[in-house]
Amino acid sequence: MLFGDADAIDSVQVIDNVAENPERHFEIDPAALFAALRAERAGGPKLVGYFHSHPSGEAMPSATDAATAEPDGKLWVIAARGELTGWKSGAGGFERLDLQFR
Protein backbone atom coordinates (compact mmCIF):
# COMPACT_ATOMS: atom_id res chain seq x y z
CA MET A 1 0.00 0.00 0.00
CA LEU A 2 1.15 3.55 -0.74
CA PHE A 3 0.68 6.44 1.69
CA GLY A 4 1.06 10.18 1.15
CA ASP A 5 -0.92 12.87 -0.60
CA ALA A 6 -1.77 14.01 -4.13
CA ASP A 7 1.80 15.21 -4.69
CA ALA A 8 4.00 12.49 -3.21
CA ILE A 9 4.21 9.02 -1.76
CA ASP A 10 5.71 9.34 1.72
CA SER A 11 5.72 5.70 2.81
CA VAL A 12 4.85 2.19 1.77
CA GLN A 13 3.57 -0.85 3.60
CA VAL A 14 4.27 -4.30 2.20
CA ILE A 15 1.32 -6.61 2.74
CA ASP A 16 0.60 -10.25 2.05
CA ASN A 17 -0.86 -11.42 -1.23
CA VAL A 18 -3.78 -13.56 -0.10
CA ALA A 19 -4.91 -14.65 -3.58
CA GLU A 20 -5.74 -18.33 -3.97
CA ASN A 21 -3.14 -18.51 -6.76
CA PRO A 22 -0.58 -15.81 -5.85
CA GLU A 23 1.67 -16.69 -8.81
CA ARG A 24 -1.06 -15.47 -11.18
CA HIS A 25 -3.18 -13.05 -9.15
CA PHE A 26 -2.85 -10.42 -6.49
CA GLU A 27 -5.35 -9.84 -3.72
CA ILE A 28 -4.75 -7.36 -0.92
CA ASP A 29 -5.08 -8.81 2.55
CA PRO A 30 -8.47 -7.36 3.61
CA ALA A 31 -7.40 -7.13 7.26
CA ALA A 32 -4.40 -4.96 6.31
CA LEU A 33 -6.53 -2.79 4.03
CA PHE A 34 -9.22 -2.24 6.66
CA ALA A 35 -6.56 -1.47 9.28
CA ALA A 36 -5.02 1.16 6.99
CA LEU A 37 -8.42 2.74 6.31
CA ARG A 38 -9.29 2.79 10.03
CA ALA A 39 -5.92 4.39 10.82
CA GLU A 40 -6.49 7.00 8.11
CA ARG A 41 -9.91 7.91 9.55
CA ALA A 42 -8.27 8.27 12.98
CA GLY A 43 -5.78 10.81 11.60
CA GLY A 44 -3.07 8.43 10.41
CA PRO A 45 -1.36 8.35 7.02
CA LYS A 46 -3.59 8.73 3.97
CA LEU A 47 -3.85 5.63 1.78
CA VAL A 48 -3.25 6.97 -1.75
CA GLY A 49 -2.76 3.77 -3.68
CA TYR A 50 -1.30 0.36 -4.30
CA PHE A 51 1.82 -1.19 -5.77
CA HIS A 52 2.17 -4.60 -7.38
CA SER A 53 4.09 -6.34 -10.11
CA HIS A 54 3.22 -8.29 -13.22
CA PRO A 55 6.21 -10.67 -13.35
CA SER A 56 5.28 -12.12 -16.73
CA GLY A 57 3.12 -9.29 -18.05
CA GLU A 58 3.20 -5.65 -18.98
CA ALA A 59 3.56 -2.61 -16.70
CA MET A 60 -0.05 -1.64 -17.25
CA PRO A 61 -3.33 -2.58 -15.59
CA SER A 62 -4.44 -6.08 -16.44
CA ALA A 63 -8.01 -7.11 -17.19
CA THR A 64 -8.20 -8.35 -13.60
CA ASP A 65 -6.93 -5.00 -12.29
CA ALA A 66 -9.58 -3.21 -14.34
CA ALA A 67 -12.33 -5.54 -13.13
CA THR A 68 -11.44 -5.23 -9.45
CA ALA A 69 -10.32 -1.60 -9.14
CA GLU A 70 -12.66 0.81 -7.40
CA PRO A 71 -13.15 4.08 -9.34
CA ASP A 72 -11.84 5.98 -6.32
CA GLY A 73 -8.95 7.95 -7.80
CA LYS A 74 -6.32 5.80 -6.09
CA LEU A 75 -2.84 5.47 -7.55
CA TRP A 76 -1.82 2.09 -8.93
CA VAL A 77 1.92 1.62 -9.47
CA ILE A 78 2.76 -1.45 -11.53
CA ALA A 79 6.19 -2.96 -12.13
CA ALA A 80 7.01 -5.31 -15.01
CA ARG A 81 10.02 -6.09 -17.15
CA GLY A 82 12.15 -3.36 -15.56
CA GLU A 83 9.49 -0.68 -16.06
CA LEU A 84 7.50 1.16 -13.39
CA THR A 85 4.26 2.88 -14.40
CA GLY A 86 1.59 4.85 -12.57
CA TRP A 87 -2.16 4.81 -13.11
CA LYS A 88 -5.14 6.54 -11.53
CA SER A 89 -8.37 4.57 -11.17
CA GLY A 90 -11.55 6.39 -12.06
CA ALA A 91 -15.07 5.99 -13.38
CA GLY A 92 -13.77 5.66 -16.93
CA GLY A 93 -11.09 3.10 -16.07
CA PHE A 94 -7.39 3.79 -15.60
CA GLU A 95 -5.61 6.99 -16.60
CA ARG A 96 -1.85 6.85 -17.17
CA LEU A 97 0.19 9.14 -14.94
CA ASP A 98 3.69 10.53 -15.34
CA LEU A 99 5.69 9.29 -12.34
CA GLN A 100 8.50 11.49 -11.05
CA PHE A 101 11.14 10.17 -8.69
CA ARG A 102 12.99 12.28 -6.13
What report would you give on this structure?
The protein has 102 residues and is α+β, with helices and mostly antiparallel strands. It has one domain (2-97): Cytidine Deaminase, domain 2 (3-Layer(aba) Sandwich), CATH 3.40.140.10. Helices cover 18% and strands 32% of the residues. The protein is built from two helices and six strands, in the order E-E-H-E-H-E-E-E. It has helices spanning 30-41, 63-68; strands at residues 2-4, 9-12, 47-53, 75-80, 83-90, 93-97. It has a six-stranded mixed beta sheet with strand order 2-1-3-4-5-6, with helices on one face. The model has no long low-confidence stretch (mean pLDDT 93).
List the keywords.
single chain, 102 residues, alpha+beta, Cytidine Deaminase, domain 2, six-stranded mixed sheet, globular
Helix-strand layout with pairing:
Layout: E1 2-4, E2 9-12, H1 30-41, E3 47-53, H2 63-68, E4 75-80, E5 83-90, E6 93-97
Parallel strand pairs: 3-4
Antiparallel strand pairs: 1-2, 1-3, 4-5, 5-6
